[in-house]
Amino acid sequence: MRHILSVILIAAAMLCIPAPAHAYYTEDPSGEATSETPCETCHGTSAALAEAEPYGPHANYTTTTNKCSACHSVHKAPAGGIVLLPAATVLATCETCHDGTGGVGVYGVIEARTGVAPAARHTMLDTVVDPVTSIPGGDGTSGGSRTATFSGTFGGLTCTDCHSPHGANTVAVFTGDRARSLSSVPNATGNEIVSDRLLRQKPTGGLVSIDVYGSDWCGSCHAGRLSKTTLHNHPVDSEITQPDPASPYTYENIVYPDNTMGPLGYNNNGYVMPDPRTSNQSGHDPICQQCHEDARSVGDVTEQTIDASEVFSITDVDGWAEGDNPRYQVFPHESDNPSFLVETDDDLCLNCHTQPRG
Amino acid sequence: MTTPGIRTRAFTALAVLLTVVLVGLVVYLYWYLGRPEALPDISGESVAGVQCVWESYGPGEGELPRFSGPMGVAVGAGDRIYVTDSENNRVCVFNAQGRFQFEFGGFGVAKPSAGNPSTYDPGELNYPVGIDVGDDGDVYVASFYNDSIEVYAADGTPLRRFPDPDTIVGRGGSGFGGRGIAVTDVAVRGDRVYATDTYQVLVFSTDGELLDQWGKPGAGPGDLDHPNGIAVSEDGRTVYVADTNHARVTAFSADGEVLWQVGSPPQGMSAESDAELQLPRGVEVMPDGSILVVDAFGFDLVRVSSAGEVLARYGERGVESGQWNFANDAAAFRGFVVVADKGNERIQLVRLID
What we know:
The complex is a heterodimer of chains A (358) and B (354).
Chain A: H1 2-15, H2 39-43, H3 46-51, H4 68-71, H5 90-98, H6 109-114, E1 120-121, E2 134-135, E3 146-147, E4 174-176, E5 193-195, H7 215-219, H8 288-291, E6 334-335, H9 345-349
Antiparallel strand pairs in A: 1-6, 2-3, 4-5
Chain B: H1 4-32, E1 50-56, E2 70-75, E3 81-85, E4 90-94, E5 100-105, E6 128-133, E7 139-143, E8 148-152, E9 158-162, E10 185-189, E11 192-196, E12 201-205, E13 210-214, E14 229-232, E15 238-243, E16 248-253, E17 258-263, H2 269-273, E18 280-285, E19 291-295, E20 300-304, E21 310-314, E22 329-333, E23 336-341, E24 346-352
Antiparallel strand pairs in B: 1-24, 2-3, 3-4, 4-5, 6-7, 7-8, 8-9, 10-11, 11-12, 12-13, 14-15, 15-16, 16-17, 18-19, 19-20, 20-21, 22-23, 23-24
């Protein structure tokens, strides 16, 4: 009888062995042209892009187009959705292609090639869990941080705060450093990338239109960095603070006849501001982008000369060529230098706080 | 009065009987009730031709309990569902009921830029996207930023990788520095592995020997622009490629000859207004020989006949069960379709209702 009882107990124990719950895990309650070809190659300037020519999902809207529905749920946007976008993020829309699988990646490139997270990034976490709403240097009065409500879901920063996906009301085109595509690599005759990068004239919902990519554009958010009046802050040349508002330094007009500074974009010389200033530089301070751009080497500290390793050199797409300077071209999305600085430590400071280059 | 021998035989008979009953019960529990058909419907009714059976937002355990941008799905032996959890650099495995089983992979940089050490160990991944399972159960994963395909046993044990990400592949690939392939998707059929690169299709043996490659930039028939999906017909004679940035799917013969295409590259306003496909990403061959195209910007699954005719569309944009948000891939099994619903950070097992 004991044996029979034992068997029954064993059988009962086997039946009690944890088995699958037979449920499911769910917890959410609720010609040769390619996409890598620079758009301007076929479509002209940004104005034309926006109004007349096809531009992927970024333009070419007509009364009969169905492109709107690609990003907008016109009749079914849920409560709380932003500009008729559903509750999922703008970031998800953009990163469908811009994660690298539909073109050159924007975020994640540095970590994918270095194994470590970038030292700086304009973080876009437009989620209810951790929306990024704090702007360093965003308070124009105190120079400290301020919080803001961005256009991403739950008030977080997202792509469309700075970029106009439709190509409407964008800044003037400018020469950038990037070889963002296989076919935009400079050739022997030069192939500078001129683009507006779909940058809004009113980034982050600003009230004032800024039609030039320069300090004032950055200052739409980082207003506290522009001040040089009552604040003890790093001097930045801007239309707001410049005594002569008609001639602030911008990304484009760094170039001066005496050639002591070169252009920003496709040149490293523009990232210095020699002391003493030349007559053309007198009265001006650097613009944001002279210190904050893709990480690179722009000059030797001790000799103030540019050797071969410090010459601007883009020969291939974003990070591909070991000798390229800058190596990664993803500013201001992410950078392998802290605070998006062009250089770090003394090497950065001595670009300006020293004698002019010989 | 019973003898000890009789008691022993009775005990043995009872033990055998109980064992049979228990085995039967286990089979019933694990097999019959384990089938998706036995699960209750979540949505209750279909929406836009889609009826959700279950959904999962991730393993629900461990350091990373939730998905982050799941982009690829494949179904292997025993109805194991393999999911590339792309931004978490891993593959998560579920059973047919949606219960998490195990994971493998992990982050490793195989091709660091100068001055950075390699952090790669065999089997590690760098932004895994496409995935497929071979007839022998081996799992093939497109490790996008490592410019190679990782191969695992069904249980996730690393087996090999190819091509060598530091070597020029055939006539050249789009990998970092022109070496390896910037692989976005893989399809395994028989002893062949098909892979999509930025502008081409590469064909390997399952051991990694390059057998063929075709495709080039451009907008002509057969030209490719960032294809993100590939599948092969049951007989191995037709290769379907989601030519993503050209907003079309092209059917190739096994040696790269263009058979037909559905959708067309954006050409102008009129072409944009009634595009058949908006942004095709994943593609899957269905049991009846038709193909299912995952249109990320169309927010639907588009069923296309094996002759290139659009037959049906399933789904709509949204965050509820049975809706998609930038879905990226699909895999069919036993009358169900599992979808990598990337924008909603989940996978869904659904029925498609015609």
